[in-house]
Amino acid sequence: MTNSFKKVLLGDQGLVVIFVLAFALVSVFVPNFLTERNMLGLLQSVVTVGIVACTMMFCLAARDFDLSVGSIVAFAGMVAVMASNATGSITVGILTALLCGGAVGLINGVVIAKFRINALITTLATMQIVRGLALIASDGRAVGINDPNFYQLALSKLLGIPTPIWVLAMLFVVFGFVLNRTVFGKNTLAIGGNPEASRLAGVNVDWTRIWIFTLQGMVCAVAGILLASRITSGQPNAAIGLELSVISACVLGGVSLAGGRAAIAGVIVGVMIMGIAENVMNLLNIPAFYQYIVRGVILLLAVLLDNLRSSALGRR
Amino acid sequence: MPFLEFSHISKSYPGVHALSDVSFSVEKGAVHGLMGENGAGKSTMIRVLSGDQHADSGDIVIDGQFQKYASTRDAFNAGVIVIHQELQLVPELTVAENLCLGRFPANAGVIQARQMFAEVGTKLKSAGIDIDPRRKVKTLSIGERQMVEIAKAIMLDARVIALDEPTSSLSSGESEILFALIERLRAEGKVILYISHRLDEVFRLCDSLTVLRDGKLAAHHPSLENVTREQVVAEMVGRQISNVWGWRARTGGDVRLKAEGIAGDKLVQPASFEAKAGEILGFFGLIGAGRSELMRLVYGADARSGGTISVDGQAIHAVDPRQAIRAGIVLCSEDRKHDGIIQGRSLEENINISSRRHTARFGILDPRKEAEIAETFIKKLKVRTPSRKQDILNLSGGNQQKVILGRWLSEQGVRVLIVDEPTRGIDVGAKSEIYEILYQLAEQGMAIIVVSSELPEVMGICDRILVMCGGRISAHIDRDDFSERAILAAALPDKKTPDAIAS
Q1: What was the ipTM of the complex prediction?
Q2: Rounded CA gap, A179 and A183, in Å?
Q3: When comparing pLDDT for B483 and B45, which is higher?
Q4: Structural domains of chain A, ranges and CATH numbers in brackets
Q5: 3-state DSSP call for residue A305?
Q6: Which of A200, A203, A314 is nearest residue B13 as measured by Cβ atoms?
């Protein structure tokens, strides 16, 4: 009995099993957890992390790293608000923000792939540059939204579920498909598995990496626009530390930092575990300071589990 | 009484019986060969001996004592040292520091450098190893590094030393030094386990021999008198292999690949050559002669500084591997692990990585076709694997090589196949299979270029040989004129007598 239990835990779907168990336990023991209102609140709270995790998964799977996501989210939200205010058109605002996010990602990608600068260093630099741009553009203050329709991006509902949650779900589906069923996704995993062998096998390594970062920038812009709409302003200090939450969620979901291994199901579970932990702690009125510790411990446990799983597979 | 004894060792991994009920023993002061095809269980045997893996059942007895290892540390304390193919030295540290790692002669935490260098120097000298202990390991040749590894075993007073394919990356001169060292260790009464594919070495060095096949004991020879090489090969593969090469006459066609004035960093002068349809062209040379470098330039893996390439009379502009592949030129690299396989991904993905550009539509994969292609080539190339979903890392070297060949054969319209060291680290049985694949491809009209540093191999399978030496092509020899002497004479840089090396 214990043996087969161990097998399930260390199997491919181990994390999903843990997630289901944890969800069931929390539903039973934490009051007000399994209510429609709390569920929607929970999903709303993971929208930003979840959206960015979609492309961070690609980044990590290709053995890269992106620290600039938090800054791009804030910057793109800022740009969306300012461009909408200036032109009076929300569509123009959104497109400008997507363009700006994509541009930052493109710069990241080109510097990393073509000039062969370490991704950690490159994005550490752009993280600060982009945050600086957001602060300069707004003079360090929040920028209010003129057109109330902008709020509708986050407030509107379809079938009783807020738009941002639909966007998140859609991105999970799209990027899950891209990872598993497209040449781009497979090339990403191959590059993470062995970059030099991939190049010699005819994979366009540089191009793939540049695209990953560009997509990452654009997806961050989506998250930034929704965030700005939800907090009803462009905040230059929004999403600080987001990169760490996103990377934690991915690692929690079994994405290997050594590259070559990723699955969308894992990332979804990773994002949800982080969200549930926070939600439950709030429901139980655990002070915010303790929540840091719990988050750290969850991450450590997840990585330990992953390690056990790898050695159970006999791979080293 | 035997000094080292394995009794009834069994070990299974999920889906594989890596070892089943293997027993054999080795006397003190003996060099014992351990042979077998890849996947026969040699590596598992070594892992069990070194405490890296636990046997499911069975015992290891050293000097009359039952060993119950919980970790590699226990094996180490019992006097067992394994020297792996991948050496475990710290490049930035000196030889002496590497040898003292973990047990520095220190006074209140400060390393007594002078004492350390003196001690290590004496030890190295007494072992007959001529290396300055103050040199950093990164400045040593691979052969010298191997010596340092062995010196480590000596310094730790190892009683059992296992060497895993020690000569696979050594030149013949370096191998000689290694053999002398092994003789000395034998004289000192150490037990040496010598794992190698090379029959010549095993017959020359070993006192006794164990052959494994499919995880079982295939043969144990307490002495090598009256044992023939053919017999050992038969024991390894489980059948008689009459002719490993199996060369047969082919008719060459028109010129397929024409490379003119290929120039690059590692070539001292531009190289030109042609390969015909239906022929196997060999490139022979010593390590560093520029063979692999030339092929990488042709394939666009490294940037060319000059030269033109044409395929079937049509000039092609290929500056990177993607363009070379589209023009019908493909390369199986010499370093499979670094440049060939995609670790952590399945066979299926490894096969389809390039050819999926034909099966995918608008960037979206066709999983059914990919599965079909993978199954086709697994069957055609006789890849031994439980399933196409298997991680390529779990396959033996020969099977990995077949997967890489499958990757290129699934590409449509390959006209020139370049294979660099096609059988490095591959056992006898799989070798013949790979040669047979190459012959069939040549007969279908491909131009095949085989790069090898094994003289018998190029002489055995090629129709024509180009010899390289010191970064340029030094000779062109047709099959009728093949002789070890002529080929080696062209391969040697300073025109030394080839006999010294041929022997």
Answers
A1: 0.80
A2: 8
A3: B45
A4: 15-26+35-308 (1.10.3470)
A5: helix
A6: A314
**Side by side, which strands form the sheet with B464-469?**
B329-332, B416-420, B447-452, B280-284, B464-469, B472-478
Q: What is the pLDDT of residue A3?
A: 67
pLDDT for the residue numbered B144: 83
Question: Domain spanning B4-237: which CATH class is it, in words?
Answer: alpha beta
Cα(B166)–Cα(B148) distance, integer angstroms: 12
Q: Which residues contact A222 (CB under 8 A, 6 or more apart)?
A: A51, A98, A101, A167, A171
Q: Are strands B306-311 and B314-316 parallel, antiparallel or unpaired?
A: antiparallel
pLDDT at B496 over 50: no
Cβ within 8 Å, pair B363-A199: no
Classify B24 as helix, strand or coil.
Answer: strand
**What pLDDT shows up at residue A49?**
94
> Following CA atoms A118, A123, A124, A130 in sequence, which dihedral angle do they give, to the nearest 10 degrees?
150
* Alpha-carbon distances, residue A197 vs A56, B317, B350, B354, B390 (angstroms): 23, 22, 10, 11, 18
Residues of chain B with CATH 3.40.50.300: 4-237, 254-328+451-503
- The reply to whether residue B353 touches residue A186, judged by beta carbons under 8 angstroms, is yes
Instruction: Give the pLDDT of residue B240.
Output: 53
- B501 has pLDDT over 50: no
Q: What is the mean pLDDT of chain B?
A: 84
User: Tokens 């090489």 belong to which residue?
Assistant: B229
Mean pLDDT to the nearest integer, A51-70: 93
Chain A environment of B413 (Cβ under 8 Å)? none
- Pairwise CA distance, residues A56 & A62, whole Å: 10
Inter-chain CB pairs, A–B, below 8 Å? 81
